[in-house]
Design brief:
The chain has about 210 residues and is of the alpha/beta class. Helix content is about 30%, strand content about 15%. It is built from eight helices and eight strands; from the N terminus they run βαβαβαβααβαααβββ. It has helices at about 20-35, 50-55, 70-80, 85-90, 100-105, 125-135, 140-150, 150-155; strands spanning about 10-15, 40, 60-65, 80-85, 110-115, 175, 195-200, 200-205. It has a five-stranded parallel β-sheet. α2 (about 50-55) runs parallel beside α3. The longest helix has 13 residues, at about 20-35. The chain is globular. The protein starts with 9 loop residues before the first strand and ends in a 6-residue tail after the last strand.
Length: about 210
Amino acid sequence: MAAAGLADAVDAFCESIAFSTQESEQYLRAAQALGLPIHLHAGQLSDMGATELAARFEALSADHLEYVDEHGASALAHAGSVAVLLPGAYYTLRQTQPPPVALLRQAGVPMAVATDNNPGTSPCSSILLMLNMACTLFGLTTEEALAGATRVAAQALGMLEDRGTLELGKRADLALWRIAQPAELCYGLGVNPCLGVVHGGVFHGGRVVQP
């Protein structure tokens, strides 16, 4: 798949119910040898050293991170890895230990917010709902949540040079919202004030009406 150009990154689920740290490391070494960027599902249900493993391979991101200690957070910060918070999985699985946001914040680990959209543990495609949950369940500020779904999310995908912020020379991917202030995107439940999106510089949606 790598030789055919069909893969742009790899991911592994390092957990007691999935792959061990040794198995995950073997897989990540093979991916590294092929020049593929790395992601790792780490610390979702237990702390078995997956966070440190992600940092050792300078993973673009370590996802979930309900169970991570000060050493793991420091390792991620030094590796430049992004912590991807997935409140949809936390909610669906009825977990009771949220990610240590204050610890990640103190260590200087950038935090992304994502849906983890999958039929097993997070059957949700609404990033707006995830923004709300990231604030209400995990304690992110609205500024942190909005950055987590845009700029930091792009960083987690290794795409920050091309997208994630509105800057001259970057790809024109953006959404148009009927809101008075950005925090509203983290507030509503079951509402979608999106007027349309611009994808690659092309507008998709209805007619934009001035407020």
